[in-house]
Every structure is written in C-alpha cells, then in structure tokens.
Amino acid sequence: MTAPTPLHRTAEAPLRTIEAALLGALFLGVVAMLSLPAPGWAAPWLALAPGSGLAMAAALRLSRRSGAARATGATPVLRRRRPAAAMAARRRGPAPRPASRLLAALALR
Q: Is 32 exposed, middle or buried (0-12, 13-18, 19+ CB in 10 A)?
C-alpha cells in the first residue's frame, strides 16, 4: 500500500505534467525549426509558443509557492481557548430540574 500524497503535492502534479509536456514540445519545436525548411513566421513560432507557455507555468508555480509561504509564515496560528468555567460546566452535566427532585422525594417516602 502506498502512503497518501500530501495535499500540496497533489495540487502541483497537474502543473508538473503540463511543464513536462511543454518542455517536450519546446524540444521538438527547436529540432523541427533547425532541421526543416519552414516559412518565415513558422520557424520562430515552433519554439516561441511552447517556450512562452513554459515560462507562464513556471511563473504560476513560483506565485503559488510564494503565496503558500506567505500564508504559512506570515501569520502565526492562534488557538482560541475556552474559559475554564465553561469547560467545568460542560463536565458537570446538566443541573437537575426541581420537578425531578420533588418526584424523587415523593417516591422515597
């Protein structure tokens, strides 16, 4: 059985897949641009389109990482504590009703 993946890693998994696909497309575009004769506008497009997508994916990953670091590091987690009286009252249980005392007193006579 495999260990569960932490939540922050599952959120980054699709982004890593997209980055890998864009990197592969960039490589193929550069190889095609260097080896095939293409019209003037098609050759740069083969490398620039996947390259710009890869740059945007990297910027998104950086913004997510800095946002998560900012959210966890900037504000300390504060715990709310209940007053001791409220906790003690909760442990004691409900107060007996006067009618039940009267009924108990009549039954014991």
A: middle
Which residue in 57, 63, 31, 66 sits closest to 46, CA to CA? 31
Whether this model's pTM surpasses 0.85: no
Retrieve residue 21's tokens: 């696909």
Q: Summarize pLDDT for 25-65 with one digit per residue, the tens.
A: 999 998 888 888 877 777 888 889 999 999 999 999 888 88
The CA-CA-CA angle for residues 53, 55, 57, to 5°, reads 70
CA distance 61 to 103: 70
What gap in Å lies between CA 31 and CA 25, rounded to an integer?
A: 10
Extract the tokens encoding 92. Answer: 């004691």
What residues have CB less than 8 Å from 64, skipping those under 6 apart?
A: 11, 12, 15
Residue 26 CB neighbour total at 10 angstroms: 19
b/e per residue 49-75 (b: at least 16 CB within 10 A): ebbebbeebeeeeeeeeeeeeeeeeee
